[in-house]
Design brief:
The complex is a heterodimer of chains A (about 425) and B (about 220). Chain A is α+β, with helices and mostly antiparallel strands and about 425 residues long. Chain A is about 55% helix and about 15% strand. With about 220 residues, chain B is α/β, with parallel strands linked by helices. Chain B is globular and about 45 Å long. Classes of the chains: A alpha+beta (about 425), B alpha/beta (about 220). Bound molecules: adenosine-5'-diphosphate and magnesium ion.
Chain lengths: ~425, ~220
């Protein structure tokens, strides 16, 4: 092992080299800094946007959903009658099941008592036709228990006009997505007709408008009280089609879901299944960011590699002299490796600073969007981990870029140089 | 006491074709002597000197410096040994061009690391003064003339008080006045009895003033 003294001496020689090659050193440093800055800027911006999208999506979706689905019976009546035969029945019709959850109120009660659970609410969802004047639009109406639903999804904050709470006091009232209201061309206070799947038509008044930022919801859905929707559907007060819950720790969702499915005999899904596309998209986006950054760093690293290789050719004589004076291969290697690491460290630090400044500048830019309603500035994420990653990338790239040329320098045979 | 023992050394160059450059070389040098190696150009003087300097380990036979066999030693061991015990002046006066003369002289001692920087600097300055170029001490060495550089190189070879000082035509770039000065200094150092010098030269006059002459002819000692 080289002693600290040896390393210091190698470093001081490297410093003399750097000083005499200041221009090339600066160019290489700027190259690294540029790579890191672009990486930081891209990660901050793309991840910021990503996180923002995830946040609004997740705010408006539960961690766990329990529901019932029409299923196809696995055995047919033939199988039951002739169990020894090989029966084949084509086009088996789904069983005529009720979509409601059995004993849903007790289940909700039980779930709300669990300490892992943050909020839970039952609702009735139903496909309906909204009719206003000559417009008829297919959509969804959510019968909700407002207090619990609000705890799940922060509904109050999404209100644009009117009131949610009055849905419990004004009979036959609903709060409609702003997009849907625009499509129907109606506003708060207007009365419209709802046609249910079963064919009943009801008159209903709009008492408020909401906007979540998720187009699918805003252009298709409305909220009414549980009792109102149950009355439209002609079902009893125990009729609930969906139970949605949020947990304190969303990573527990899959295992909780399994427990509940077993316990209550419902079907269900967790957020990971519900948002698999979104989650996969996130992974892809990070891959792109890291891919681009690594490419830029490779180019910068190649620059360092070139500069050092050239430097080593120019310094062949110096290397031979150092060796003749008793500097070991390792000492010589440190001289050049240190130059690479210095370029890497300075480049990385400058890159982090510039990257941060660019990201910060972007985050103060005003930005208005019709889709991202709650956004007034560009979303930028400032996470320490990006900066740690950037610095590590920078050092690793420059280390590799310096490693091979300096190994070459260490292997120089002094005799062949000194012989002249 | 023998500071250097060379026994049955053979060396071949394999490129461009197999060439027997040193043939069964055997000699010994006593401590405190100034020995010159002479011979025609191409007779193998430099090649032999590089073997003795520990930088070239491709040979058969045995070379012992101060009782230590060089054959089979690791690169690190040889580097340290060279740093502490061998001072070298190259045929072409090589200095590190970006360093000052003083810094060039100091480097082997800094590498050795047994003294603090101040005393090394003081000693280096003293050596430059002895060789009469102390006025060039803080100049970048690339700005010096050939003769001045050679004198700095001589100063550098002396900084660690090596057991063996090896010079490959050290006075090749010096005018006759400076050749006399340099040789005078060498003579003075050797006459103190602690150090030994091996000098390749084709200056007959210098060879005559040395204690011993090893004459090479076509790769053999004659
Ligand atoms: N690296 C080498 N490869 C092949 N032949 C070499 C090499 N170096 C020197 N020689 C040859 O070895 C012989 C001795 O060279 P050298 O020791 O430099 O002679 P001197 O110093 O006595 O003039 C010469 O014939 C030279 O051409
Ligand atoms: Mg020669």
């Amino acid at each position: 092992m080289a002693t600290l003294k040896d390393v210091k001496l190698s470093v001081s020689i490297a410093m003399v080299h750097i000083r005499s090659k200041l221009r090339q050193t600066i160019v290489a440093t700027v190259g690294v800094a540029f790579g890191i800055a672009v990486f930081i800027f891209m990660v901050s911006f793309i991840m910021g946007t990503n996180n923002y999208m995830m946040d609004i999506t997740f705010e408006h979706s539960p961690h766990l959903r329990l529901y019932n689905e029409p299923t196809i019976a696995e055995t047919t009546i033939l199988d039951r009658k002739y169990p020894d035969w090989k029966n084949e029945v084509h086009n088996v019709r789904p069983r005529d099941v009720q979509l409601n959850l059995k004993d849903a109120r007790q289940a909700i009660q039980e779930i709300s008592q669990l300490q892992e659970v943050d909020a839970v609410a039952g609702s009735v969802k139903s496909q309906v036709f909204y009719r206003y004047g000559s417009n008829a639009i297919n959509g969804l109406v959510n019968g909700i228990d407002f207090d619990n639903e609000n705890r799940l999804f922060n509904l109050e904050e999404k209100l644009v006009e009117g009131s949610f709470r009055e849905m419990n006091t004004i009979p036959n009232s609903l709060v409609m997505g702003e997009g849907l209201a625009n499509r129907l061309n109606l506003s708060v206070g207007d009365r419209l007709n709802l046609t249910t799947e079963a064919g009943g038509t009801f008159s209903i008044v709009v008492i408020g408008l909401f906007k979540t930022g998720l187009t699918d919801i805003d252009r298709q859905q409305s909220y009414a009280s549980l009792a109102t929707v149950q009355r439209f559907l002609g079902v009893p007060a125990s009729y609930i089609t969906d139970i949605q819950a949020k947990l304190h720790d969303m990573d527990l969702a899959p295992q909780m879901l399994n427990k509940w499915k077993k316990r209550f005999g419902y079907q269900g899904s967790d957020w990971k299944e519900d948002h698999s596309t979104l989650l996969e998209g996130e992974a892809l986006r990070s891959m792109i960011v890291y891919g681009v950054a690594i490419t830029i760093l490779l180019v910068a690293g190649f620059g360092i590699f070139n500069i050092l290789t050239m430097m080593i050719y120019e310094k062949m004589k110096d290397i031979a002299i150092l060796k003749a004076m008793g500097f070991s291969d390792t000492d010589v290697r440190y001289v050049f490796l240190f130059q690479a690491l210095l370029i890497g460290a300075f480049g990385s630090v400058f890159g982090l600073i510039f990257g941060f400044l660019i990201a910060y500048a972007i985050s103060t830019m005003p930005f208005e969007s019709d889709v991202m309603v709650t956004l007034d500035h560009l979303p930028v994420s400032f996470e320490t981990v990006y900066y740690i990653a950037g610095f590590t990338f920078g050092l690793i790239t420059t280390f590799l870029a310096g490693y091979f040329p300096s190994r070459k320098a260490a292997k120089v045979d002094p005799i062949s140089i000194l012989r002249g | 006491m023998n500071i250097l023992e060379v026994n049955n050394v053979d060396k071949y160059f394999l490129e461009p074709s197999r060439f027997h450059v040193l043939k069964d070389i055997t000699f010994a040098i006593k401590k405190g002597k100034l020995v010159t190696i002479t011979g025609k150009s191409g007779s193998g003087k430099s090649t032999l000197l590089y073997l003795l300097s520990t930088m070239d380990t491709e040979f058969s036979g045995s070379i012992r410096v101060d009782g230590e066999e060089l054959k089979g030693k690791s690169n690190r061991w040889l580097s340290n040994f060279r740093n502490e015990h061998i001072g070298f002046v190259f045929q072409f006066h090589y200095l590190l061009p970006e360093f000052t003369s003083l810094h060039n002289v100091m480097l082997p001692a800094l590498k050795r690391g047994t003294h603090d920087k101040e005393s090394i600097e003081e000693k280096a300055y003293g050596l430059l003064k002895m060789l009469d170029i102390e006025d060039q001490a803080v100049k970048r060495s690339s700005l010096l003339s050939g003769g001045q550089q050679q004198r700095v190189a001589i100063a550098r070879s002396l900084i660690n008080d090596p057991l063996l000082i090896m010079c490959d035509e050290p006075t090749g770039n010096l005018d006759s006045k400076n050749t006399q000065i340099a040789f005078g200094i060498f003579r003075e150092i050797i006459d103190k009895g602690e150090q030994t010098m091996i000098m390749v030269t084709h200056d007959e006059d210098l060879a005559d003033r040395s204690d011993e002459i090893i004459h090479l002819e076509d790769g053999r000692v004659v």
